[in-house]
Amino acid sequence: MQAWIDWGRLPGARGSQPIGSGGQLSVRCCSARIFLWLGLTLHAAIASATTESFEHWSLECHDPAPGRSACSLFQNVVLPPEQGGGRVMRVTIGLIDGDPFPVALFVLPLGISLPPGVELEVEGLDPVRFPVERCEPSGCGGGLRLDTELLDTLGSAESARVRFRDSSRQPVELALSLRGFGPGIEALRASARQERPADSAR
Known about the structure:
Order of helices and strands: HEHEEEEEEEEEHEEH
């Protein structure tokens, strides 16, 4: 628990959700491009140019280069104020060039047990276990590609469960709200479609 609280406090910003009981979640395995995106995202500390809220999710867009924008959908899961208010998980969803399916990056606290990996569960699909790919000062993360079946299930569910093990190999379960997920994904895809004409002109 101490590792969670030391990991970093967040203000009561849009896209943040306190830990609570919830439903379930699932995703598919990574590729080399997902691993690269994961590394870039773990390193990034970019000020948001614009942020739009979709209930418990937020769409954040910034300008990584002149004339080019990039957007991602995210949610922070934080401890309740009485437990310190520290962030225990950040879920960031983005689109990689040339891939129609989004990629989800789950960043968890430093100090977790790495060998067991992470399990995600959503009602209607079998739980999926995936590895923690790498750790940076901002946390330990793993990425997953969200296919059509998974996106449809996530868009119709109320919440998900994310499970991992702490440094003592004790199980930890976090609830992830899916309220606003569907409209957020649509807005993410719309932002990518708006970028393509400018990209193709180069």
